[in-house]
Amino acid sequence: MKRMLRRQRALADYTLAALSRRWGKNLALISVFSLVVFVVASAMLFSAALKREADVVLQSAPELIVQRMVMGRHEMIEADAVAALAPIRGVMRAKGRLWGYFYDASSGANYTFMVPDDPALVPGPGEAIIGEAVPRARGLDWAGAPLFLSRRSGDLVKFAVAKVLSADSALVSADLVLMNEADFRDFFEIGPDVFTDIAVTIRNPREIGTIIAKAEKLLPAARFITRDEISRTYQKLFSWREGLLVALAGAAILAFAIFAAEKASGLSAEEAREIGVLKAIGWDTRDVIAMKLWEGALVSVGAFLIGTVLAYGHVFLLGAALFAPVLKGWSVIYPEFQLAPHIDGLQLSTLFLITVVPYVAATLVPIWRAASADPDRIMR
Amino acid sequence: MSQRPTTAVFASFAALGLAFGAAGLHAALSGPAQAARMTASARLVGQVGLTDLALFTEARYARHPSMADLHTAFQDNPMSFEHFPAGSFVPLPESLGQGRLGFSEAEVAR
What we know:
The structure holds two protein chains of two kinds.
Chain A (H helix, E strand, L loop, with lengths): L1 H20 L1 H35 L6 E7 L2 E3 L1 E2 H7 L5 E7 L1 E6 L4 E6 L12 E4 L2 H6 L8 E3 L7 E8 L5 H4 L2 E3 L2 H8 L5 E2 L1 E6 L5 H11 L3 E5 H39 L3 H12 L4 H33 L6 H5 L16 H28 L2 H5 L1
Parallel strand pairs in A: 6-10, 7-9
Antiparallel strand pairs in A: 1-2, 1-12, 1-13, 3-11, 4-12, 5-6, 7-10, 8-9
Helix pairs in contact in A: 1-10, 2-8, 2-10, 2-12, 8-12, 10-12
Chain B lengths: L4 H25 L1 H18 L11 H4 L41 H5 L1
């Protein structure tokens, strides 16, 4: 056992000495390999963490949302619809939701205005509860600064900031401005008998299909969105995002694949000669193959470890800073959110299999041919 | 005797392995605090009645993808391609194309 370890270490020593003879090329190879692993691993970790976050956090979203559609667009729904939905068997509660968007010309940001469902969270008259990004977007640095909003030129509405929501929930609340119903209706100048949509609470989630079928008869023009659909939207959205990022990295991956295949499989004359010399001085075919295995493993496992560790740091310690400008697009408000660190063993194994194994295989195949040939023939 | 090349390289591999282990440890140790944070966020979602993540605030169909109209991405002009950068990250709604056409209820159900 000890002898075998000593022998392997000697082979590794020899491999490293051989690699260091072409150190520039090999360093470039490891750097590019690590970068490719870093990009793919970052996309994987980021989208998996976002999926998990959306899954857990949106579990408390309303079970069923009923929207009124007019000419293919979401329209305000009348209070009569709330009264129509409430008596359906299995419906615990139907409540009109009030929410809307406000474009703040002074900061260029879009806010989501909303009336909270829970009475404990409803602010008093003239007060607002705001998300963590709102003061940031407006440059309100001091605590207690009021929120002035202008709907049109010459108009100014003042809200006292009752509370700023914690940055811990930024991913769901960054752009929120919460106010009471009277202030909301007053601000948007809407009548007392309309709502943005209706949130329906259901006693038994298995009855949701039946309830929708009954509600469709009462409100034929309505659109029904279940919590499952909300969750699926996000699962799909983040898979799409991951796919997009990997597709963007695709060109780099392809370039790397060509580079690595060329490096690993095409034996240079110098390398062929080296193998010839090794065989001539008494190296076994097995030794030559073991030496090349060491080379492939050192390069690919090294690059895998560097890329994965950097990707973890990037996503969970630096808040995926490299992805933020892409995701931010033209939005002024982008939440400063943290993601729960999570390493998925299956995902990492897949990454390992698609990066390390092909590289080691690409190194081995041509060497097999050279190492089993006659040294005299390869040296010529 | 000069140092063998494997000494430094194996040491670096050990360091990388430790960093990898530290990442796993970090994930495990921050688990309870992160679970508490997510529970608090979920509570806020329930209290306010939220349906979406505030990740893309630039356009309304990106801010509330699950609530958006079924074809908003191309709403502004016929033949206009998506102009908000976030639109490239927000795919078609899940429920698109599930409706059925028919002359009677039985036909639709079938």
